[in-house]
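Hi P.,

Sorry for the delay on this. The queue was packed all week, but I finally got your sequence through. Input first:
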Amino acid sequence: MFDIHQFLEPTYQAISQTRLNPWLKGFKAGVDARMSDYTHGKINEWAELLKKLPNLEPSIIELDDRVAIGEKLQLSASELTDLEKTLKELHPWRKGPFYLFDTHIDTEWRSDFKWDRIKDQISPLENRVVLDVGCGNGYHCWRMAAQNPKLVLGIDPSQLFLMQFAIMKKYLPQSPVHFLPIGIEYLPDEIPKQGFDTIFSMGVLYHRRSPIDHINHLKKLLKHGGELVLETLVIDGEDVNHPDQVLIPEDRYAQMNNVWFIPTTQMLTKWMERCNLADIRVVDINQTSLEEQRATDWMTFQSLGDYLDPNDRNKTIEGYPAPKRAVMIAKRK
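Then the structure:
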């Protein structure tokens, strides 16, 4: 039987060696609560799949320009075939891409596009304690690791993403990157004075019924002077006299039924100001392209192209503006 706490013991050990140690008990309680609320029926099966991975030391590790582990020549042709089969058992692969022994995991999202847009805008992560909220399978966490942080803690409630993360972690056991299978609601309400140096929340805010509460929670998990990197869906301010607008979809947005609020960047700035954040700036606005998000052999379900108006790619099939994302950076006072 799968033991989640035994599985996460290296993560707990890593947290205990940072200033977050006083909150470790709360993190463990959050894992218990999440697993009690929901445990995926395939989690034991997925854990067994991890045992099928090749046991060897990767000859190369690249995290700066891409996430690449090992080389093709380290495995036989049959081993490479078995590896790809095992990896595809963990379908769908949403965030990436990854290269594992030259097996290209061509994920739905080209998450490297987003990272390349923001990596030079954020404060350097060297020796920082970092939190990535809604990290998916941890792709951006691995890219962060190239900057030599003290700890990168990714959190996401998906147990499938935990297993996808664990594949890479198997070959990078000494990396400061770790994962907890929880959402932010399972974290403490606040970590006073000793919080994270940098917090990323990318692609989460529009799924929250109370976006200001989410921003405020992120702020309270930051140390004073810490940096928040917030990415979310936005709309253009069509009325120049009233740019602080927000779109509330009537039902679905791009076929997502859990999108609640899509503000202009001006409105988003106001929300962040109300949460007492400082030095707020917009560092990137980008309309999601069909090159950045699409179906692949590693994610065969419908994707962005199916959710846009076939006659006008600047609109969703519901008639709303097509997905456009802004990255905001701010500091806790």
